[in-house]
Amino acid sequence: MNSVFEISLLLDFYGQLLTKRQYEILDLHYNSDYSLGEIGEYFNISRQGVYDNIKRGKAALNKFEQKMGLVQKFMEQKHRAEEVLVYLKRIDASKLSSEDRQNLEKVIDGITEIISKF
């Protein structure tokens, strides 16, 4: 079973490929923490109907990920950027020229900014 974080990522990447209703139900459940009952009231459907929509929506999201693999690629790139940042921070800047030190700081700041946007 997918975690809330995984479903949220899948929704971010593939949510627009779902029906509007499936997207809204999954978004309310996973991103806004609505219960099945609350979603059922909102859409005027039974809890079982909500559950079925969630089940179908999750299956569709997982199928999209199996076919395209965008979330996996995204997570691999994020992990690799974090690894590169660790190695850059290990460089002994005291042995660098002032210009090289400034360039290193700019690279570290740039990668940190990129990672924070993930």
Helices and strands, with pairings:
Blueprint: H1 4-14, H2 20-31, H3 36-43, H4 47-68, H5 70-89, H6 98-117
What would your notes on this structure say?
The chain has 118 residues and is an all-alpha fold. The protein folds into two domains: 4-68, Winged helix-like DNA-binding domain superfamily/Winged helix DNA-binding domain (Arc Repressor Mutant, subunit A, Orthogonal Bundle), CATH 1.10.10.10; 73-117. It is built from six helices and no strands. The chain has helices spanning 4-14, 20-31, 36-43, 47-68, 70-89, 98-117. Helix 1 crosses helix 4 and helix 3 (36-43) packs across helix 4 (47-68). It is elongated, with a radius of gyration of 21 Å. The model has no long low-confidence stretch (mean pLDDT 93).
Q: What distinguishing features does this structure have?
A:
118 residues; mainly alpha; Arc Repressor Mutant, subunit A; 6 helices; elongated
Count of individual beta strands: 0
The top-level CATH class of the largest domain is Mainly Alpha
Helix content: over 70%
Order of secondary-structure elements: HHHHHH
Number of helices in the DSSP assignment: 6
CATH homologous superfamily classification of the largest domain = Winged helix-like DNA-binding domain superfamily/Winged helix DNA-binding domain
Please indicate the count of domains. 2
> What assembly state would you assign to the polypeptide chains in this entry?
single chain
Q: What would you say the CATH architecture of the largest domain is?
A: Orthogonal Bundle
- The Rg value, from CA coordinates, equals 21 Å
> Could you please say which CATH topology of the largest domain applies here?
Arc Repressor Mutant, subunit A
State the end-to-end CA separation: 23 Å
Structural class given helices, strands, pairing?
A: mainly alpha
Largest sheet: none
Q: Tell me the fraction of residues in β-strands, as a range.
A: under 5%
Mean pLDDT: 93
Protein name: UPF0122 protein CDQ84_07865
Family: Belongs to the UPF0122 family.
Function: Might take part in the signal recognition particle (SRP) pathway. This is inferred from the conservation of its genetic proximity to ftsY/ffh. May be a regulatory protein.
Pfam family, one: UPF0122
